[in-house]
Amino acid sequence: MSLADDAPGRGRAWRHAAHAAICDVIQTWAHGTVVRATRYPDLHSFNVVRVENHPRIGVGELVSFSEEALVAADSPDQPSEYLTEARDVAARRGARVLAVRDGDMDVGFVELERVGSGAEITLVYVLPDHRGRGLGAAL
Fold first, then answer.
1. Residue 57: which of 28, 26, 32 has the closest Cα?
2. Alpha carbon distance 46, 18 (integer Å)
3. What angle, 0 to 180 degrees and rounded to 10, lies between the N-to-C axes of helices 79-92 and 7-22?
4. For the whole model, what pTM was predicted?
5. Closest CA to 52 of 24, 2, 16, 6
6. Got the DSSP string for 81-138?
7. What does the alpha-carbon distance between residue 47 and residue 50 come to, in Å, rounded to a whole number?
8. Helix (H) or strand (E) holding 29
9. End-to-end CA distance of the chain
10. Is a pLDDT exceeding 90 seen at residue 73?
């Protein structure tokens, strides 16, 4: 099967490319790869333990390994820290933001990342009082 026909493989390749572009720590371990972005400790999608084979370990052992491997990737102390890091990564990845407006107010947005000939919608958000009208689907 070619990569063009392998949707899961394309998804993994996309995620691995994102990790390679942002993460400064990429280490193999017995069952996959540990990736960390020490500059962005609050972004959990860039501070992960990837399990890339079928480990013969229990959940407890996997959790313990992950906690040790990701010790510096704590939860954000302030929401603004997360937003600052997310905005910086989006800019580094060349993300585009498209918004929908109701009058003079932004009521929803979508964030789009492109890599090569592919694209991924990474975020979709609509204000709670504007939901249920199909804005998210339209975005």
1. 32
2. 8
3. 110
4. 0.67
5. 16
6. HHHHHHHHHHHHTT-EEEEEEETTEEEEEEEEEEETTEEEEEEEEE-GGGTTSSHHHH
7. 10
8. strand 25-29
9. 33
10. no
